Fold:
Amino acid sequence: MALKVIGKGTFGAEGTDENIQSVTASESVSEVTAKDKDGNIIGVALTEHVTEKTLDVLATGGSEPPGIGEAYEGGIVTARSKTSSNTEFSRWSVSVKTWDGISGSSETQVV
Structure:
């Protein structure tokens, strides 16, 4: 029996690299509370907005995703690990972070 695709759809993980198998994304902020001299809360500010993605990437023929500190999938690589077996590919787990509007580009410097 042949597979029949009805309609249009997007297949695969969210990402531009065709080797990405799955993506987990999370967002977080730090909270700063302002209090008056009596200890009453007078305001709350949300700072340090961070988006973090963990991507599972397949690589073959000695290829690999960008290294730590390099731009990848709209962020900066902060961690990566490699798993290989007796197959023809290696599986990489890559963590990518974006800080409050700082995108992954070759000119971005995070201090």
